[in-house]
Design goal:
The protein is an alpha/beta fold. The protein is built from 26 helices and 22 strands. Strands 7-14-13-9-10-11-12-8 form an 8-stranded mixed β-sheet. It has an 8-stranded parallel β-barrel with strand order 15-16-17-18-19-20-21-22, surrounded by 6 helices. A 6-stranded antiparallel β-sheet has the order 3-2-1-6-5-4, with helices on both faces. It binds phosphoenolpyruvate (PEP) and magnesium ion.
Length: 759
């Protein structure tokens, strides 16, 4: 049963046409349960009714026409109760409604299960039978499990678009909603980009769905062979040397009995197609790499290349050598920070990512670059968006596909209003960040992307509170050398000469990966991340520290910050390595010049909750603390910052988060340790005001938020903020905090700044 269930769900989620997929779905379920009728209804939440979308057993011409109110009939009852309803004779049930057009007179037995996604009923699955009987436990369990699995695929707004179409409402095309993003509006053509297939990123897994997997593999192998023939044909017209032989070698290898048979054997052992391929390719690569003959050793590369091409076809990814339009909205399953860095110079207007949420690194980078973004769009037919026109609203996280003229005009007005507002707050840009009663704070910027850096030098910042060094590590094929890093860091330090620049040591892992250093883990945010990696690889850490210190020579504004610290041992170890790098440089390089090398300040990020209880121990070891509220929130609330399913639980204004932030501020004051914050909370006017009241002296934020935050600070009194904070800290739930802060900002005359458009 499990195999059948998996096959049904897999087929459904891979289909590109919803109506066909639903028809196939109902007949598969009907067969699996050997029953006489299976139907699927989808919810139209605007009209408050379920529409019969497909059935195998009910009248065909009722599809898309017959609807049942949310509180009507047995289907409505399943939706209202949010649980399965299993009855022997439906027609005798008090809620039964006779709908002659569906022709269900002969069916007595009825089992209906709701399809629920994130607490919302998306539809109802029903099975019916002529014989009056209660469906047995196994049948009920099957339908419940299937509904739960279908929910994710169905959550796609493709379904909503389809419902609208059934009712002749075709005016505005589809409207997709995300759960997070970066503010701003973009209007333009969408380009869908698929990641390049890479065997090294595959985590092997078994499915026991061997028949399906064999079909997938054989199909991919035939397509790959056909591609090789086409490629060599095309190239023959241009070159005529031996380099074309490589395609023959690939083809032969792919057609050879050994290679194919080994992959097939692994599939029959239960591995899924991509895992089987990875296992066989890895084995060949190992064998070739161990050979003495250099020519043969190099063939390991060819095997990997062949493996990736096959994987590409297994994953059904089209070749992407496409020409980009001058300006475009980038759409991808998972827009990574690396992709953002890769496309930002090429006319990128905005991004749409199917995965991720508001505090994913991609969203943070998008904010830093002022690129409107929508993250976590629950949509499975992503290919259909390619080359379509869209409006991306990064304030409301909405994407309008093929928008009508009226909507385009409306958004052009919003763009104009946005520009006007930016002009207003820009007036404060070069004024001090002081409240009306003269309480001053430092506003610093978060940086790390070389593009956009010039802009950030001129926004009135008091320095750089967080330089994310991992970004320059991303868009490359190997680790940058010490001299490359030195040049880069020197540019940053020199452009802020006389102002502090806090550089964070490499913080990869979690949702930030390097293409040349893949890390595959079940729980990446709880895994090998930040300082854990660099302490395990002192060769990477030392090169980076040396580069920072060399870059700082003669400028002297560098501070080094350690990410993801969870123990004092890590701090000791990191300081030992920093001292070693300092010693090496002073003896090797700088002693002859008669100069002394500047010793940078060393600080730690407070982002792992456990370390909050060791702030006193830390105070004795380091020069400053900087709170990473993005990770601190994720770890305090145990909510993956990148997971769209739990995005609504991730909230900086959760009382536990606010109280932890307040506690950190008190402890730092007690121990006289300079304190800053560099998470996204400081970007928000509401967050910034609360942090100032807690005693945070340095707020680091995206360059694009700085003027806005400064403007707000200059319009309030510190003593009003401390009163607001006292009240906020007594509240017990997140919603209360939001409403209270909303009220207070309105009272302070800052109503505009609680509106989503300005946050
Ligand atoms: C944080 O966690 O708040 C932080 C600033 O670091 P990052 O977002 O890069 O993990
Ligand atoms: Mg962090």
């Amino acid at each position: 049963m499990l195999t059948i269930l998996r096959r049904i769900v897999l087929e459904f989620s891979q289909a590109s046409e919803l109506d066909q997929a639903l028809l196939r779905l109902v007949s598969q379920i009907k067969d699996a349960l050997s029953t006489q009728c299976c139907s699927v209804y989808l919810a139209d939440h605007q009209k408050q009714h379920f529409i019969l979308m497909a059935s195998n057993g009910l009248a065909t011409n009722a599809f898309g026409r017959t609807s049942v109110g949310f509180t009507e009939g047995l289907v409505g009852l399943v939706g209202q109760r949010e649980e399965p309803i299993n009855i022997a004779n439906a027609q005798q049930h008090p809620d039964f409604i006779h709908a002659p057009e569906v022709e269900e007179e002969n069916f007595k037995a009825f089992l209906g299960t709701p399809i629920i996604h994130q607490r919302k009923v998306l539809g109802i699955l029903t099975v019916q039978q002529e014989q009056a009987r209660v469906f047995n436990e196994n049948e009920e369990a099957f339908l419940v499990t299937l509904s739960a699995q279908l929910a994710t695929a169905l959550a796609s707004v493709e379904a909503q678009g389809m419902i609208e179409l059934c009712h002749g409402n075709q005016s505005l095309g589809k409207n997709l909603i995300g759960i997070g993003g970066a503010p701003g509006v973009a209007i333009g053509e969408m380009i869908v980009v698929h990641p390049k297939a890479d065997l090294s990123t595959i985590a092997v897994d078994k499915t026991y769905d061997s028949q399906q997997q064999l079909i997938i593999f054989n199909d991919a192998a035939s397509r790959t062979i056909a591609e090789f023939s086409q490629m060599s044909e095309k190239l023959k017209a241009i070159i005529s040397d031996n380099s074309l032989d490589i395609f023959d070698v690939y083809k032969q290898l792919l057609e050879s009995d050994n290679f194919k048979a080994e992959v097939i054997a692994k599939i029959t052992q239960g591995w899924n197609a991509q895992s089987a391929l990875k296992l066989v390719v890895d084995h060949y690569v190992m064998k070739f790499e161990a050979l003495d003959d250099e020519y043969l050793r190099e063939r390991a590369y060819d095997i990997k290349d062949l493996g990736n091409r096959l994987l590409n076809n297994i994953q059904n990814l089209a070749e992407q050598d496409q020409k980009l339009p001058e300006q475009f909205i980038l759409v991808a399953e998972d827009v990574s920070a690396t992709m953002l860095a890769e496309y930002q110079h090429l006319g990128l207007l905005g991004i749409v990512s199917i995965t991720g949420s508001n505090n994913s690194h991609t969203a943070i980078l998008a904010k830093a670059l002022n690129i409107p973004a929508i993250m976590g769009v629950d949509y499975f037919a992503i290919r259909q968006l390619h080359k379509k026109h869209a409006i991306l609203d990064g304030y409301a996280y909405q994407l309008y596909v093929n928008p009508g003229e009226a909507l385009i005009n409306e958004y052009q007005h919003i763009l104009a209003a946005e520009n006007l507002l930016n002009l207003q707050v820009k007036e404060a840009e070069h004024l001090p960040a002081s409240t009306k009663d003269a309480h001053s704070v430092s506003l610093l910027i978060n940086a790390g992307l070389s593009a956009g850096f010039e802009y950030s030098q001129n926004v009135g910042a008091d320095g750089v509170g967080l330089y994310r060094t991992e970004i320059p590590f991303m868009n490359r094929s190997c680790f940058p050398s010490e001299s490359e890093q030195t040049v880069l860091y020197r540019q940053v330090l020199a452009s802020f000469e006389g102002k502090p620049v806090t550089m964070r040591t490499l913080d990869v892992g979690g949702d930030k990966s390097l293409p040349y250093f893949p890390i595959i883990e079940a729980n990446p945010f709880l895994g090998w991340r930040g300082i854990r990696i660099t302490l395990d690889h002192p060769e990477i850490f030392l090169v980076q520290i040396r580069a920072m210190m060399k870059a700082n020579h003669g400028i002297g504004n560098l501070a080094i910050m350690l990410p993801m610290i969870s123990s004092i041992t890590e701090v000791d170890e990191a300081i030992r390595l920093i001292n070693q790098a300092y010693f090496e440089l002073t003896t090797e390089l700088f002693c002859e010049e008669g100069h002394t090398l500047e010793r940078p300040k060393i600080g730690v990020m407070i982002e792992v909750p456990g370390i909050i209880f060791q702030l006193e121990d830390l105070a004795a070891k380091v020069d400053f603390f900087s709170v990473g509220s993005n990770d601190l929130t994720q770890y305090l609330l145990a909510v993956d910052r990148n997971n769209s399913r739990v995005a609504s639980l991730y909230d900086f204004y959760h009382p536990a988060v606010l109280r932890a932030l307040n506690y950190i501020a008190q402890k730092s004051q007690e121990k006289s340790v300079p304190l800053s914050i560099c998470g996204e909370l400081a970007n928000e006017p509401t967050g910034a005001l609360l942090l100032i009241a807690m005693g945070y002296e340095n707020l680091s934020m995206s360059a694009h938020s700085l003027a806005k935050v400064k403007w707000v600070i200059r319009h309030v009194k510190y003593h009003e903020l401390t009163q607001i904070l006292t009240q906020v800290l007594s509240l017990t739930n997140t919603q209360e905090v939001h409403s209270y802060m909303h009220e207070q900002l309105v009272k302070l005359g800052l109503g505009d700044f609680v509106h989503a458009r300005l946050q």
